Sequence to fold (392 residues):
Amino acid sequence: MGTYPMSDEDRAIQERTRRFVDEELIPWETHAEEHGGEIPGEAREAHRRAAVELGLYAMNMPKELGGGGFSMFQQVLVSEQIGRVTNALGWCVHTPPAWAPGVVSAEQLERWIVPTISGERHECYAITEAGAGSDVDAIEATARRDGDAYVLNGTKMHVTSYNTADYCFFQAKIEGGPHAGEHAMFFVDKDTPGVHLVREPAYSHTYPDSHAIVAFEDVRVAASNIVGEEGDGLDFTYAWFRYERLMIAARCCGAAERLIEEATAFAKQRVQFGEPIIAFQAIQHMLADSLTELWAARLMTYELARNIDRGVDVKVQHAQCSMTKLFASEMANRVADRAVQVFGGRGYMRENVAERFFREVRVDRIWEGTSEIQRNIIADQLAKRGVEVLVG
Ligand SMILES: Cc1cc2nc3c(=O)[nH]c(=O)nc-3n(C[C@H](O)[C@H](O)[C@H](O)COP(=O)(O)OP(=O)(O)OC[C@H]3O[C@@H](n4cnc5c(N)ncnc54)[C@H](O)[C@@H]3O)c2cc1C
Fold:
């Protein structure tokens, strides 16, 4: 049991998630790795059902809509445990778009969001394009109003979970009218004519979820599919970024914890030159640095979650989400690299947890804004608000 102060309810949530991860998910890791990220359908369904029964599925959504209504701190505790398992097995604990209930229409809530909370529907995000990654404002996708409809065009890449989703959030710029050139976001059902898969490239990690390239060609959606108003599109994306950056940090802490536990256990039993390798100072220092950095990242992650629960100013949250994601993702990458080293040749084998995490945590320095972009955000906020406001 940890020592960080939390309520009995928080501790119970943390412990039941940990048990679920240890007893139900981790045992499937090597199978998933050896089968392109897949596990048998019954096992996947059992995981989904368990996530629902444990109250973890849609933990971030309001209780009155069928979600868990967890505090941000509780969500971080869950995500941290989920981060301890590889191959996206933890994605059975799905977190639908928390920004949505406050901004979508009653019809959109009923048609897309509530069924997503209950697990009947599944979303994906189609924002990034070949020419627009870090620079989201460079997107070329367009939305043209035509009577009571919009006509959408554009090709999106890295669309995560396109293979499991049945609708997309599609980000475009308005063509013509008073909001020409401004961003807008749309609900687009995958089976709408004109939406088609270009290809599903292979990525470093072994996940069952694809990251697709998807073309939207003259896709006609009802005008009521727009989220909010013309010009609002980027606000939702930023809200989603903030949330995901914090959850990435939490998952990175979980990954680091698992790696340190496993590498320490290995170092205690692996004998070379007549001694367990943990007796060698070079090994000790790798583990000591890893543990120290994990503690720092975890404290940042927990404190940020508590700040959000306390209602800290959203601009301050924005900077703190960037600092936390930057530090925790870079920390997890250093820890994974050291863990591979501690395991030696075994650490280079796909059946080894360090090898899998070494590939998996790499993307945490890239998605939801690269480390360089996080630094840009932090420096911008520092110049505008000063040290005291951001870390005081
Ligand atoms: C596995 C995976 C899943 C993803 N899932 C989704 C998804 O579901 N939906 C979606 O829309 N997108 C998704 N993305 C896209 C992701 O958000 C982008 O990859 C990310 O924002 C970086 O954009 P980019 O890859 O185009 O890199 P680029 O923007 O081309 O950056 C290339 C390099 O230049 C650096 N750079 C760029 N601008 C600056 C600057 N101003 N200052 C300093 N350095 C800079 C970057 O840090 C990076 O090192 C996913 C990506 C991956 C890898």
